[in-house]
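During the second year of the project, the team shifted from modelling isolated chains to modelling whole assemblies. The rationale, set out in the original proposal, was that interfaces cannot be judged from single-chain predictions alone. As a representative example for this report, we include one of the complexes processed in the last quarter. Its constituent sequences, exactly as entered into the pipeline, are reproduced here:
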Amino acid sequence: MSASPESETISDFPGAVPAPGRTRISIEGRLLRRLLADLGDPPVEFVLWSGERAAPPGTAPAIRIRIADRGTLLRVLGDPQVQFPDAYSAGRIEVEGDLVQLIALIYRGMEAEDVKHSFGSRVARWFRRNQRNTLAGSRRNIHHHYDIGNEFYAMWLGDTMAYTCAYYPNLAATLEQAQVAKMDHVCRKLQLQPGDNVVEAGCGWGSLALHMAGRYGARVRAYNISREQVAYARERARQQRLEDRVEFIQDDYRNITGHYDVFASVGMLEHVGRENYPELGRVIRRSLGSAGRGLIHSIGRNHPGPLHPWITRRIFPGAYAPSLGEMMQIFEPSGLSVLDVENIRLHYALTLRHWLDRFRAAEDRVRRMFDETFVRMWRLYLAGSIAGFETGTLQLFQVVFSTRENNQIALTRQHQYAT
Amino acid sequence: MSASPESETISDFPGAVPAPGRTRISIEGRLLRRLLADLGDPPVEFVLWSGERAAPPGTAPAIRIRIADRGTLLRVLGDPQVQFPDAYSAGRIEVEGDLVQLIALIYRGMEAEDVKHSFGSRVARWFRRNQRNTLAGSRRNIHHHYDIGNEFYAMWLGDTMAYTCAYYPNLAATLEQAQVAKMDHVCRKLQLQPGDNVVEAGCGWGSLALHMAGRYGARVRAYNISREQVAYARERARQQRLEDRVEFIQDDYRNITGHYDVFASVGMLEHVGRENYPELGRVIRRSLGSAGRGLIHSIGRNHPGPLHPWITRRIFPGAYAPSLGEMMQIFEPSGLSVLDVENIRLHYALTLRHWLDRFRAAEDRVRRMFDETFVRMWRLYLAGSIAGFETGTLQLFQVVFSTRENNQIALTRQHQYAT
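Output from the structure prediction step:
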C-alpha cells in the first residue's frame, strides 16, 4: 500500500507530534519513534529541544525524557547504552518520572531482542581489554571505585558500611537490620563455630570479618586491595577491640597463604574476571583442610554476557557478573563440591532502594564533595541497578561449597532457619 | 640401588605372600600388588586360586577378595572397571567383608589419580554411542531397566515405590517416612497450591504425581515412557480415586504439550543425555506461563565425566550424571532463572542403605525370579551406589527455577522449613 508524502508523516509515525509551528515530523523524531518501537513501545515520551515530541501511539506516557540539543541526540542514537547515561550525568538529558521504572522498561524491551553488535559495543570491548584483572590491573580497577572517600560511602551505606546485597527476613526490616541478617545468614550457611579460622577474600570496610569475630568467636584474616577500605577496617577493629582476632591484609586474593577452616567472599567475585576463576578455585582448595567449607556471594546473570557497557566504563572497570554455569569454573576443576545455591536478587533491589533513598537525601553534600555530574552519574547507577535486579537482568547468587571429601556437611538446611 | 633376584621377590613386593609350597611371588601377585599401590594401598587382600596372597604391607586387611582362576584375573587386570563387577556378578570373584567399604576405598583411590584411557574405556565409549537418547533409543534404554517387573521393585523400594533419593529430616526416619518427606520437600520448594497445573517429566510408578494431587490439590499430567510403570501408576490412581486429577501419559518428555504452572522432574534427567539439555529447557520454557516455576532432581557430579562404565553397560544404558555447570545448559539458553540448588548426596547414601538391606533380605525371592548372577549384579550396583554417594563421587542436586520474568518468587526459603 502506497501513501502520499503528506500522510506518511502521520500514519508511519503515529505518536509523533511536530515541533510547534511545523507540520512535518523531523528525521530525529522519526528515529526516536523507531527506537521506541524497537523497545516494544514503552509508555515513554521524548521531548526534543525544538518542542517536537515522540511517544508510542495510544499511550499516556508515564515518563518524559527531555533531550537538550541535536548533538546529544545523535550521540545517544549512535551508542545509546553508553551515551544515554553519559548525557544524563552531564545534564543534557532530563528524566521526568520514575528513573527506576524507565530503566526497567528499557531492560524488559532489550530482553525481547538480541543485543546489536554496534560500533559502541566494539568500543566497549576495547575498554574491557584495558581493564584486565592482572595483579596491577585489579589494583587500578578497585582504586577507581572504592578509594574515592570513605566519608562519601558513609553517607548512604548505613552503619554497617556493608556495600553488598542485604538479606531481608521480611519486607519491614531496615537496611541496618537486613545487613546484620545477611551476615548472620552467611555465618549460619557456613555453620561458623567459635575458634574457626576464616580467610576472607575482599572484605570491604570489614563488617563481615568483625561480625564473624565479635558474634561467632571466629579468627579472621581478611584480604583487600583497597587502601582506603583496609585503613577504615583496621580502625574499626581497634575501636571494637578485635585486633587480636581479625587481621586486615592489604593484598590480592591470589596471594592468600595459610590453612583455614572456612573461606568466605562476599561481593568480590564481580572483580575477579572469568579468566581467573580456575585460579581462584586453586587458591580456595589449597587454603582449606579436608573438612573445609566456604561461601561465595556475587552478582550473577541468567546467561553469560558482559555487564552494561556504561557500568564497566564509568562505575566498575573490569567488572563481570557470571552466570551460575560460569561460576562453576571456580569449583569443578578444583575438587570442590557445591552444596547450596540461593538466588536472592529481589533482596538486592530492596537494598539498592534503601541506598538510593539515602543517596538522594545526601545529594547536596555529595555535590559539594564532587560535582553535579558525579551526583547524576551515581543516581543513575543506583537506579539502574534496582531496575536490573527487579527485571531479572541481574541475579545475586550465594554459593556454599566444601572440599569434595568432606562428609561433615549438614544433613539439611534447617540450621539456616532456626530462630 | 640394585638388588639380588632373590631379594627382589620380597623387598619389591612387600605384602605379597607366595602360594603354599612356593618361594617366589608369581607375575599375577606382582600385578595385584602394583594395582593396590596405584589405588593408594587400601586395606584389601587378594587371594588367588593358588592360595597366593597380596596385600599392602603393614596393614591388617579389612576386606578379602578371592579370585577363582587366572582367566578372571587377566580379564580384571585388562579392564578392571567393567570386568571386576562382571566377575563378581558371575561368582568368579568373592568379597569377604563390607562390599560398600571396598568400593568406597577404590573410589577414594581413583580420585587420587587420573582415569586412564584404556582399551576398556574406548569400548565403553562405543557402548555409549549405541545408547544414544533419541526417541527410540530412550525407549530401549528405559525398557532395559524399568520394565523388568514391578513385583521385583516392590520387594525393596518400600510402600511408596519411589525409586529416587529420599529426604531424611533426621537420621531416625524410616525409608517410607523419608520418601514422603522428600515429596513434601519438593512440593514446598515449588510452593504448590490447590488448583496448580503440574506437568511431570518421568514419573516412575507415580508416587509424586499422586502425592501432589492427593495432599496438595494439584492437577498433574505425568509423562513416562516405561510401559510397566505407567500401567502400575494408572492402577494406583484408580485405587486412590485420583483419576480425575492425575493423568499418566505414556510418552516422551519431548512430546509434552499444554501450559502449566509448575514443571517437575525427579530422577529423569539422568536418562536425558547432555546433548538434549537445551531441548529440555525449550520444552520447559514453552510449557510454563510467565509465573511458572519448576524443579529438577537429579544425580550429578562435582565435575563433568561419564558414569562408571559398568553401570552404563549393565544397569543404566544411556545414563549420564551432569555436573552443576552442565545442568545449566538446560536453564541458561532458555530464559529460565535458577533460584535454589540443594545438594543432598548423603541422603541418597541413606536411601540406598535402606534399599540394600531390603534387597538382601529378599535375595532368595529375587534369585527364584531371575538367577544368581542377577542377584549379585544388583547387590553390587546398590552397594557401589552407596559408596559413590558416601565418597562424593556422586552428588544429588535439586534445582528450583522459574521463568526469567517471574517476580512472584519467595523472598526467603523459610517456607521450606516451616513445621
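Chain A has two domains: 5-120, 135-417. Chain A touches chain B at residues 108, 111, 167-171, 302-304, 323-325, 328-329, 331-333, 335-343, 346-347, 390-392, 395, 404-407, 409, 411-414, 416-417 (CB under 8 Å).
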